[in-house]
Design goal:
By secondary structure, the protein is mainly beta. It has no helices and eleven strands. Strand 4 and strand 5 form a beta hairpin.
Length: 116
């Protein structure tokens, strides 16, 4: 498959942690960048974190210091470790694999719900 596949979503209490995983079909080192995006209820989809082909990471201000994006070239995954979760982190989280302007693929999404 070309499209990535997300896993790891679920229900967690505020202050808790979750780890999302995005599985790619081939070597992730060949992907220009991979990223995690989210769409909260009633809001537009937004970028959460990205990692490029050189391993350089970037984060949205709202998650910086709480979320960490990383890659595992052997497992062919990009993970998003989410700590100190807040209710406003509740959203469907999507993985994106970008190769070039004509090759840009998204996963189906995984639900993350932060609630007491």
């Amino acid at each position: 498959q070309v499209r990535p596949v997300e896993s790891g979503g679920g229900l967690v209490q505020p202050g808790g942690s979750l780890r999302l995983s995005c599985a790619a079909s081939g070597s992730i080192s060949s992907i220009t960048f991979m990223g995690w995006y989210r769409q909260a209820p009633g809001k537009q989809r937004e970028s959460v974190a990205q990692i490029n082909i050189s391993g350089i990471t970037s984060y949205a201000d709202s998650v910086k210091g709480r979320f960490t994006i990383s890659r595992d070239n052997v497992k062919r995954t990009v993970d998003l470790q989410m700590n100190s979760l807040k209710s406003e982190d509740t959203a469907v989280y999507y993985c994106r694999t970008y190769y070039s302007p004509g090759s840009d693929y998204w996963g189906q999404g995984t639900q993350v719900t932060v609630s007491s």
